[in-house]
Design brief:
heterodimer; A: alpha/beta; Rossmann fold; four-stranded antiparallel beta sheet; about 40% helix; B: about 350 residues; mainly alpha; two-stranded antiparallel ribbon; about 5% strand
Chain lengths: ~250, ~350
């Protein structure tokens, strides 16, 4: 589905990613965990073409898309739910969803569009209730659902989620990850990046650890959850002991 | 077509009719002349409002696009092709009906392009120039277009002022009227009331088209670009492409306005291309609210009318400069978006009041 080889990327004179290689197989849920500033969002932005790689290749279903414009990548079936949701605040919930179908022009017509809207509302009933509301007035969890619904309108084969749990209450985070599992069961492949490593690895099949722009560890979710380094750095285990020992 | 849009446009048409009846009843029908001219300038400002409000960019070249349209039409309809009658292309153009012979003000026969093909060429040329400027510049994020169009404006103004064929400082006069319907023409000795209604119709049709565009799939994409450009790209919206298309559309509208006003006045001069004209258009869009088409229409009709009636006198440019500064300071969303309660609070500042949360 997706294969990235030796990817270097950054902004201006700043290099954020160094020789990153990952792959995602069809049907998988893959999680990339790492601290703030490790380059997780940059990686997703590079895959979808919002940031251009300096070196390396991004193969989506066998074709190199590292020079392809973003809209063509989205049309090819790779959608990003951006960090911080980025719903269009001044537009209604419905308009946001219709915008998600932007690349679907001419495919399926009006009936197809309605079927898509029904499908999204089945997944997120709250969006149907709030269809006429401005997206900016939704709660954080509802905005996350809208952002995911909006991305699903484009029928992505690969759905990429950037920090879906950011700023949400723990209960809502659980709902969001339940939905990720349902999206995956419905046939989409999912690549998600998360600071919330535990929640992400619990739903993922495999995971990568990204540290200051390089992949330092990879394995199945069980392996990573059991790994002592991962536990200490990202799962908060031993954290109390550490801070007690570290305190003067 | 949405019923709400049709109702709005119907209300506009009713206003146009009421103003005409009132002006005739009050024996002030001469005001319709300035209203007609305002309507054509409003066409420029509407396109600019669409572009500024939806593509989030500023053009300082709309006076140049207006002038390109107006001058192209003026040259094509006044340049006497009589001496070239025997050349192959003039003969061919005449055969397919693109040319017309008329008698000019001095009684001599002039063979020139008919106003309609001239208009088509003028609008196409304007659009082509906008496309050539827009494609490289709108790929960049940031306000590079303002710079590029400022340059374009300077070039067009200098060319208009310095070219003998374009009449240099005098401009081009003797532009024939544009026939619309039997007995009705833009300009010439056509009736003042008929011309007013032609301009009103042009505005009403433009509003219908623009409002429809804003509420379509394209408009949704444009609003998304203005809301969050990266998120819009992530939805598969080709942002550069939409910005260029909007820019070309708004430039073409300015070109069309130039054509119509040139026919109406029977002339055009280099002052139409001046940078101050472009600044004036930007100021009017700011007053009306970028992207608020009805607000822009109202602001443009009022301000252009006052300006054309000479209420601002020699301070005209200063008035529009001041308007721009004041609006940017106190009502960056346009006059209609002012929150009166907040404005009143601003007038009564209390000592030591806590800073407003950002």
């Amino acid at each position: 589905m997706l294969r990235i080889r030796n990817l270097d990327a950054g902004y201006g004179s700043l290099t954020v990613l160094r020789r990153v290689s990952i792959h995602v197989k069809p049907g998988e849920i893959v999680a990339i965990v790492g601290a703030n500033g490790a380059g997780k969002s940059t990686l997703l932005k590079t895959i979808v073409g919002l940031v251009r790689p300096r070196a390396g290749e991004v193969l989506f279903e066998g074709t190199d898309v590292s020079r392809t414009p973003t809209e063509a990548i989205v049309r090819a079936g790779c959608s990003l739910v951006p960090e911080g949701r980025q719903v269009f605040a001044d537009m209604t919930v419905w308009e946001n969803l219709l915008l998600g179908a932007h690349v679907q022009r001419g495919k399926g017509g009006r009936a197809g569009l309605q079927a898509d809207l029904d499908r999204i509302c089945g997944l997120f009933p709250v969006l149907a209730e709030r269809r006429r509301q401005l997206a900016g007035t939704l709660s954080g969890g509802e905005q996350q659902m809208l952002a995911m619904g909006r991305a699903l309108m484009a029928h992505p084969r690969l759905l990429m989620l950037d920090e879906p749990s950011m700023g949400l209450a723990p209960l809502i985070v659980r709902d969001i990850f339940d939905i990720v599992v349902r999206i995956s069961a419905a046939g989409s492949t999912v690549l998600l990046v998360e600071q919330n490593a535990r929640s992400a690895l619990k739903v993922a099949h495999r995971g990568y650890v990204l540290e200051t722009g390089t992949i330092t560890m990879q394995g199945t979710s069980e392996e990573l959850l059991a790994n002592r380094d991962v536990q200490r750095a990202y799962l908060g285990k031993d954290a109390n002991e550490e801070s007690e020992r570290g305190a003067p | 077509m949405r019923p709400a849009l049709l109702r709005q446009v119907a209300a506009f048409v009713a206003t146009v009719v009421v103003i005409q009846l009132a002006s005739v009843a009050g024996e002030k029908a001469f005001l319709l002349t300035q209203l007609t001219m305002s309507a054509y300038y409003t066409l420029v400002v509407l396109g600019l409002s669409l572009f500024m409000g939806y593509a989030g960019q500023i053009s300082l070249g709309h006076a140049a696009f207006f002038a390109v349209g107006g001058y192209t039409s003026a040259v094509m309809t006044t340049f006497d092709l009589g001496p070239f009658r025997s050349t192959a292309w003039v003969a061919a153009a005449g055969k397919v009906g693109l040319l017309a012979t008329r008698t000019d003000a001095f009684g001599s026969q002039v063979l020139a392009f008919h106003p309609w093909p001239a208009m088509a060429c003028a609008v196409l040329l304007t659009a082509a120039i906008a496309f050539a400027v827009g494609v490289p510049v709108l790929k960049l994020k940031g306000h590079y277009l303002a710079m590029a169009t400022l340059g374009l404006g300077t070039i067009v103004y200098s060319v208009a002022l310095g070219t003998a064929t374009l009449g240099a400082a005098d401009g081009i006069s003797g532009v024939p009227p544009l026939p619309v319907l039997p007995g009705i023409a833009v300009g010439g000795n056509g009736s003042r009331i008929a011309n007013y209604y032609v301009a009103g119709t042009v505005l009403a049709v433009s509003m219908l088209l623009l409002l429809n565009l804003v509420h379509s799939r394209v408009g949704r994409a444009l609003r998304a670009i203005h809301g969050a450009e990266d998120a819009a790209s992530a939805m598969g919206v080709d942002t550069a492409h939409y910005k260029v298309r909007t820019f070309v559309l708004s430039a073409a509208m300015a070109g069309l306005a130039g054509v119509l006003l040139t026919h109406y006045n029977g002339s055009i001069g280099p002052s139409e291309a001046s940078i101050m004209k472009s600044v004036k258009y930007v100021a009017i869009v700011a007053v009306g609210g970028m992207g608020s088409l009805w607000g822009t229409l109202a602001a443009s009709m009022v301000l252009n009318f006052l300006s054309l009636r000479g209420y601002f006198g020699t301070l005209d440019d200063a008035v529009f400069g001041t308007i721009l500064v004041v609006v940017m300071l106190f009502a960056p969303q346009g006059i209609l978006a002012i929150d009166l309660r907040r404005a009143l609070r601003f007038l009564r500042p209390t000592r030591g009041a806590p800073a407003e949360p950002g």
